[in-house]
Amino acid sequence: RRGAGGGLHGHPRRRGRRRTCSGETAAHDGFSYTDCSIAFMITGSRQAKVLIVGAGPTGLTLGVNLLRGGIPCRIIDRLPQRRPWSRALGLHARTLEFLDAMGVLQTLRERGRPIRAVNLHGEKGPLLHLDFAALGTPEPALLSCPQSQVEAVLEERFRSLGGELWRDAELLDCSQDGAGVRARLRVGEQVTEVEAE
User: Cα separation of 190 and 179, whole Å?
Assistant: First the structure.
C-alpha cells in the first residue's frame, strides 16, 4: 500500500521496518483516509529515538503521541510540502476524542465545520435521516475539515512539542544485522544514514 505523505512509494517492505498503517476506517486512530507510516527506533544519543517515515495523518499522530509520552522522534517525508487536496473530509466522533486528548481539537473546530445530522434523498424522496446526537459520545458530530488542514494542525502540534520534521527527505533503503537496522536517506541532494534498533 502507498502512504498519503511518506517515502513508501515504490519501495517494497523489508525486514527491520515497523509498519503502522490505517485504512479508510481504521479503528486505532479513526482517520478515514488511507495513510501509512514506518517507524524505526534510532540508537545514539545525538539523534531522536524514533524515525517516522511519512508525514501524513498517521505519521504525525504517531509523532505527537510519542512526544507526549516523552520519546523524542523525527518525521521524514519525501515531498517538499504537503499535498493541497484531500482524500476525505470527515473526522468521526471517536477520532475527535483522540484529537481532543492530543490537544488539537479546538483548533480543528475553528478550521472545520461540524455536521450534526445527515439526510439522504433519492428520486422518490427522503431515504435516510442520521442524527449524530444519538451516538451518545462526548463529540456527537462529524467534523468536516480538509485533510491539508488536519495535517497542518497536527504538524503545528508536533513541532510545538519539540519534534523534527524533514521534508524532501526520502527513505531509500534499509538493511538489518545483529546490531540493528541501518536506514539510508536522501535529504535534499545529499544521502545520509541513520542507525536503528
Answer: 25
Which residue from 132, 49, 41, 36 is spatially nearest to 92, judged by alpha carbons? 132
- The total number of residues written for the chain in this structure: 197
Contact assessment for residue 108 and residue 143, using Cβ atoms and an 8 Å cutoff: yes
Q: What's the pLDDT at 113?
A: 94
State phi, psi for 145 to the nearest 5 degrees.
-150, 130
Give the Cα separation of 55 and 64 in Å (integer): 11
Q: Degrees (nearest 5) of the Cα angle 48, 52, 56?
A: 135
Average pLDDT, the chain: 79
114, 142 contact by CB (below 8 A): yes
Residue 142 near residue 24 (C-beta atoms within 8 A): no
Closest CA to 100 of 68, 74, 146, 126: 68
Query: Residue with C-alpha cell 481532543?
Result: 100
- Residues of the chain short of pLDDT 70, as ranges, are 1-48, 180-181, 196-197
pLDDT tens-digit series, residues 114-165: 999 999 999 999 999 999 888 888 999 999 999 999 999 999 999 999 999 9
Point out which residues pair with 155 in neighbouring strands: none
- CB burial of 33-71 (b: ≥16 within 10 Å; e: otherwise) equals bbbbbbbbbbeeeebbbbbbbbbbbbbbbbbbbbbeeee
